[in-house]
């Protein structure tokens, strides 16, 4: 019995390692549904019970989320990202916003130094969509467009750890932004990001840091 138990445990560990590797490699992006239990069983060459145990272990670690009737979805790209997500969920909005400021200011600096022309094309297109969303007056559409722009700025810094940490602030960022904007898109709440994007294009790291720090400090002041 002990030998069988050890063999089963080893198989589960192998399943966990293989699933973790697929997630880390981006085969199943954050938010996507992973293959079904029978599919994983065939893919990994192990029994469904072994797959089930491996999936549950990764769900407990915060990488996966099991949704009854819908499937199993990727919640985070690593155990670190899963831990950050849980910690953010338990934090005050001010704490989350202060961490967001630290990450976005560093991202602005990195993007100004390391952005590519492909990055700039994405940033300028995202900025245009953000402006269109604001003009249209749709709060939810604007929130998503704004978050997308900041995600692309972080990616343009070309720091994978920074990008992973920032991704796990997504829900907190949306919450603080909705609170800042309120129920309608009023002119006095508009934040111009064109200067930030211009600074990144000009590779002006100091200017990019200044712009990012200013609007985030204003958001923090608005929470008081």
UniProtKB/TrEMBL annotation:
Q: Which UniProt keywords apply?
A: DNA-binding, Transcription, Transcription regulation
Looking up Pfam families in the UniProt record yields: FCD (PF07729), GntR (PF00392)
Q: Which GO terms describe its molecular function?
A: DNA binding; DNA-binding transcription factor activity
Does the keyword field hold Transcription?
Answer: yes
Identify the residues that the record assigns to the HTH gntR-type domain, covering every copy. Answer: 9-77
Q: Which PANTHER family match?
A: REGULATORY PROTEIN GNTR HTH (PTHR43537:SF47), TRANSCRIPTIONAL REGULATOR, GNTR FAMILY (PTHR43537)
Which protein, by its recorded name, is this? FadR family transcriptional regulator
Q: Which organism is it from?
A: Bailinhaonella thermotolerans
> Source taxonomy lineage?
Bacteria, Bacillati, Actinomycetota, Actinomycetes, Streptosporangiales
